[in-house]
């Protein structure tokens, strides 16, 4: 399938957004896309489009693998979050292989509060970074 000039422009815009994003913004973008993939997978499962659902669930697994790979031992919560990511990966696989909408819904229920927490953390970091130095004195 050939890309239109609009498709190419969208792709360039997205690539520039990612390339210039701060680490906290990248994390938020990953969580946003993870939720989109899970919700699209659920809609495809409901419609019986198992191939498309599988594509979304596999992409979601790739995002979780990226999130998991970004964890460092320097952060106290990394072991717990690693456990969540491991569990989430297993449930995404189950949702795909077993065509299990309940597993997909469980994945969504796990991701939504994590996404909200990371959005709040990123906003806090962003607002701190934008605070004028004179206001900190």
Straight-line distance between termini: 57 Å
The total tally of domains equals: 1
Question: Considering DSSP H and I runs of 4 or more, what fraction of the residues is helical?
Answer: over 70%
**Assembly state here?**
single chain
- Mean of residue pLDDT? 87
Biggest beta sheet attributes: none
Helix tally equals 6
Structural class: mainly alpha
According to CATH, the homologous superfamily is Flagellar protein FliS
Shape by Cα distribution: flat
> In the CATH hierarchy, what is the class?
Mainly Alpha
User: Which architecture per CATH?
Assistant: Up-down Bundle
Low-confidence stretches: 131-137
Q: Remind me, CATH topology?
A: Four Helix Bundle (Hemerythrin (Met), subunit A)
Rg (C-alpha, Å):
17 Å
Beta-strand percent range: under 5%
Please explain how this structure is put together.
It is flat, with a radius of gyration of 17 Å. It has 137 residues and is mainly α. It has helices at 5-19, 23-47, 50-69, 78-97, 101-129, 133-136. It is 82% helix and 0% strand. The longest helix has 29 residues, at 101-129. It has a single domain (25-136), classed as Four Helix Bundle (Hemerythrin (Met), subunit A) (Up-down Bundle). Helix 4 (78-97) runs antiparallel to helix 5. Residues 131-137 have low confidence and may be disordered.
């Amino acid at each position: 399938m050939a890309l239109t000039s609009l498709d190419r422009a969208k792709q360039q815009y997205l690539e520039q957004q990612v390339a210039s994003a701060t680490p906290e913004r990248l994390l938020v973008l990953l969580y946003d896309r993870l939720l989109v993939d899970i919700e699209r997978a659920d809609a495809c499962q409901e419609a019986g489009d198992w191939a498309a659902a599988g594509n979304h669930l596999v992409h979601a697994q790739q995002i979780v693998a990226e999130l998991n790979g970004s964890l460092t031992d320097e952060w106290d919560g990394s072991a717990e979050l690693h456990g969540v990511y491991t569990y989430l990966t297993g449930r995404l696989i189950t949702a795909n292989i077993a065509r299990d909408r309940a597993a997909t819904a469980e994945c969504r229920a796990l991701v939504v509060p994590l996404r909200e927490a990371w959005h709040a953390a990123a906003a806090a970091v962003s607002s701190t970074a934008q605070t004028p130095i004179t206001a900190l004195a």
